[in-house]
Amino acid sequence: MRMAQDTRFLCDHMLGSLARWLRFLGYDTLYPGPLDDTALLRSAREEGRVLLTRDKELAARAGRTGHLVRSDALDGQLADIRETFGPDLSVGGLLSRCSLCNAVLVPMDRDEAGKAGVPTPIAKRHRRFWRCPGCAQLYWPGSHHERILGKIGELGKGSGQ
Ligand SMILES: [Zn+2]
Fold it and tell me: What does each C-alpha distance from 152 to 9, 34, 49, 74, 138 come to in angstroms?
C-alpha cells in the first residue's frame, strides 16, 4: 500500500486552493498555473506525481497517473484526497512546507527569527518559527495555524474513522 506521506501531487490550474492546503499538510505539491494538458501529463509522469484535475478528459488521458477531483469545494476536495490517497491527512507535516512555493521550511529559534524579520512582539510570544529558503516567507504557529488545525479536525470528524 502506498504511504500517503510519499505521495507527490501536481495540481492543474483549477486547484490552486487545494494545492496550498496540500502544502500546509506537508505534501510535495506543484501548482504550475496554466499549462496545456500534454505538458501537465508529461510533468506528472517525469516527476512521478499524481495529477489532480477537475477535467474529466484530462483525468482519463492520465489514467493511473491522474485523479479526477469531483468536488468544487475545498472541503470536498480535501476529503476526496484523504479517502483516495491516505489513511489520513495527518497534522504531522504541518508547517513543514511553504504554502506559497512548495519549498521545505527551515526551523529557526527565537534569535534567528528576530534577525530574519519576525516582528518582536510575535517573536516574544512564540517559541517555534520557520523560514522558507525558496521565497523567504516566515511562518509561526499563529491564528492561521489554528485555522488549519480546525479544518483538519473537521475533516477527521466527517470521515467516521
Ligand atoms: Zn516559499
Answer: 19, 28, 23, 12, 22
What are the domain boundaries of the chain? 4-93, 103-140
- The answer to whether 80 touches 72, Cβ cutoff 8 Å, is no
Q: What is the pLDDT of residue 136?
A: 94
Q: State in Å: Cα 134 to ligand 1 middle.
A: 5
- Chain centroid to CA 140: 17
DSSP assignment, residue 93? G
- 131 C-alpha to center of ligand 1: Å? 8
The CA distance from 96 to 117, in Å, is 19
Rounded to an integer, the average pLDDT of 138-154 is 77
Using the mean position of ligand 1's atoms as its centre, give its distance from the Cα of residue 84 in Å.
27
Is 7 a residue whose pLDDT tops 90?
no
- Find the 98 Cα to ligand 1 centroid distance in Å: 5
